[in-house]
Amino acid sequence: MPDDFPSVFEGSAAHERAGKLGVLRVCGERGADDAVELARRIGGATVAINIRAYAPFTEAVFAACPNLRMVSIWGVGTDNIDLASAARHNVTVCNTPGANAIAVGEHALALMLAVARKIPQIDRDMRVGQWPREMVGQLHGKTLAVLGTGAIGTHVAKLARAFGMNVLEWSAQRGSVTERDDMLRRADFVSLHVRSTPQTRGFIGAREFALMKPGAMLINTGRGALIDRDALHDALATQRIAGAGLDVFHDEPLKAGDPILGFANTVLSPHNAGQTPEVRRDGLLLTIENVERFLAGKPQNVVSAS
Questions:
Q1: Same domain, 122 and 231
Q2: Catalytic residue positions?
Q3: Structure pTM?
Q4: What is the pLDDT of residues 200-251, one digit of tens each?
Q5: Are residues 62 and 165 in the same domain?
């Protein structure tokens, strides 16, 4: 495990279970965001367990680790892994779909509520002696476009219906651009749950913001790269949309002075939508189960390059 920093694995039930599979080395220091260092840490290992999305599993890393046969990811995202290179080097990549769906789905709804009801802004105002009485929004009766219908998107849709929202669902595999554009025009809220790939980079850009209602709110618990950064800043600055709730960003952690920090019509969280004890426990155990199944010749949750 080349990237357990800050540590979530050491001392866990998954750690104990992994230790029974063979020689286990856990690297708990920062530095796996560098490809050369990542390759050095993996060394001659047969399996790498990837905990952090910043670890770059590139062509160079796979070429430098000829014994590597599997990468087991804690989480769903694979944007830090060159899947085509993994396939060329006969490396199987597995993830943990669904392990964080409930937690991230709840967080997406929490961001919708926080943005619509202006909870962070109102809280700040009250703490300096104000008594703000401006109008706030509600979810009931509003239209939500869920873009991406995997485990997380499906759970968001379920929760939103319980709030009395009209839910529109779009699948990246089956839906057309025309259908997506129609949803963007109709939606009061847009929640992003598509997989981050080179094809979905800038999935929401200036063109898509121009389709959205002026009162619409954008929620992103997927990956920062799904949104064109400049287009988002312009849409917020010009009030082309009413606001955004963001758990993911182009730069993580955010740097001091990042423009997104200056917008009052946003609610921000530090990529922690899935950081619950239940997600950590279940996700890490599934990560190790994937290794067990692979070593037994029965791989599961395999991610392809397509």
A1: yes
A2: 223, 252, 271
A3: 0.90
A4: 999 999 999 999 999 999 999 999 999 999 999 999 999 999 999 999 999 9
A5: no
